[in-house]
Amino acid sequence: MKAFSATVLRSRAERQVVARPRQALAHVDALALLHELDVHQIELELQNEALSDAQGELQLAAAVFMHSAEGLFVCDRSGLIVDLNPAFSRITGLAREAVLGRAPESLAALGVTGSAFAPCLEEAHRMGHWRGEVSGLKADGQPHTLMLSLAVVRDPAGQIQHCVGAFSDISHLRTHAAELHRMAHYDELTGLPNRRLFADRLGQAMARARREGHALAVCYLDLDGFKDINDQYGHALGDQALIGVTGHLSTVLRAEDTLARLGGDEFVLLLDLDSPHACDAALARVLAHAALPVRIGEHTVSLSASVGVTLFPNDDADADTLLRHADQAMYLAKEQGKNRALRFDVQLARSQQIQREQLARLRLALEQDEFRLHFQPKIDLADGCVVGVEALLRWQHPQLGLQPPLSFLAYLQQSELDHQLGEWVLEQTLCQIERWRAQGLSLVASVNISPDHLLRPDFAASLQALLAAHPQVPAGLLELEILESATVTDLGRAAATVSRCRAWGVKVSLDDFGTGYSSLALLRHLPVDGLKIDQTFVRDLRTDCNDHALVNAVIALGTAFGCEVTAEGVESLDDAAELHRMGCGFAQGYGMARPMPADELEGWLAAWRARPAWPGPAV
């Protein structure tokens, strides 16, 4: 209202100056006075408005301070608490009167007692703030965890005026986190570490073992007979048995060892060893304590354990592989009678790994058509005529070149690839016989058949189908050679298969005769057409009387059983002459020809036929 009156007066005065110019100078002082009154009034109004806003902010700050869910306290520049809010007392259980005038570090409820508070306060003074978790005791002695924040307030000169603290109780969060950690890392039934926690401890132990140069034993333990207890007494008492065995096993472990449960009745042990020799004694204690009686309800039961163990770093594998190796050893312990501990054989495992890798590479070689057939001529010692060839497998390796069969055939034993490659050789041999016949060349081609391939239930039917697919090839031009040095596990089935093949006209012979342990049994049971004397006896035929006697005996056996006898590994024509004198009918070897690709055979045959008339070797 005053501002309005001053404005009106000023307006009238200005009109009077305009209307009566002669009196203008008389009124200048009046206008100046009115203007000063107006400015002063505006300044008063602004000051009142600012004061009102400041009072509102203070009231709001006071309301927030009093009603905040967080505990708040204010310290003066000497570090004593000068104010706190109700939440402070609610969280800590400390009355306002017990806190005012005290330093925060003197309050156990804030968890930063004594020298522990000094670094927090120093950080707040240096950075302007500090924040972290603290653990303390409420007034009733109950522990709690607080999230505490400190902030300093400085005056315009930069000097610390106050320190403000704020905290909230996060005990329930920590309890919940601990429960989640327990559920994630410990077995609910036994309280032992689970697979996840065991893997973490194993990784740490492996790093420590490498650094400090000591050994670790990773043991996989499975209880013997636990299923019977579950079936007889029920799962509830079965669980009690697991708890009881866990208690027994825990008593033999040191602080640095770990016992974990993987599930069911399977456990794993991690033993920290000063040396690998300490493992046996530790495992003996484990087996003894696993077999201690356990009380379940009104019954007492006894169990035993089968344990597989692998030693690190002797078994220098990753954590998952170590556990798998121990598991494999445990299954062997089960198979060997249970209630025992077996170590994982690292060398055997490495050879098995090589076997798997080589088998995979050979499978790829078959898919990529890397195998080749070479053919070695078979000579009739009576007249020097070429009567047949033996199909010999080679591997045309992309990097290593042509590989002989001894470098890879051993990896095929007792595998499905052995059968697949055997079928490939039969198919390729029949195709080659077919091509030779188209060229006017009729040669018997022999193919080596492994006992596993021969004993397959579908071998005869598969061979019959192959022969039917090549109607231009007479069955008599195919000969099957069975390795006598390999084990034929079912002579009855083998004899039946051989009989069926011979009924179609296919010839069958025993290869490497004399090198195995069942030569006479095979000769007795298998209806074969021929015998092939192994080259180990033929090589020193003329210099070793024992070899000479053995070769003579095999020739006599073959003659007695009505079999054609072929000598392998004939290195010279003189050896061929001696074999002919002894009654051997046929020969193969470098003395006549090396194995060669099919496209080289025609040239070799022409050269062989151009030789002087047989017998070249003098008898």
From TrEMBL:
Domain PAC: 130-182
Location of the PAS domain: 72-102
InterPro entries associated with the record: Biofilm_reg_signaling (IPR052155), EAL_dom (IPR001633), EAL_sf (IPR035919), GGDEF_dom (IPR000160), Nucleotide_cyclase (IPR029787), PAS (IPR000014), PAS-assoc_C (IPR000700), PAS-like_dom_sf (IPR035965)
Superkingdom of origin organism: Bacteria
Domain GGDEF per the UniProt entry, residue ranges: 214-346
Domain EAL: 355-609
The species this protein was found in: Leptothrix discophora
Pfam families assigned: EAL, GGDEF, PAS_9
PANTHER family per record: BIOFILM ARCHITECTURE MAINTENANCE PROTEIN MBAA (PTHR44757:SF2), DIGUANYLATE CYCLASE DGCP (PTHR44757)
Name of the featured protein: EAL domain-containing protein
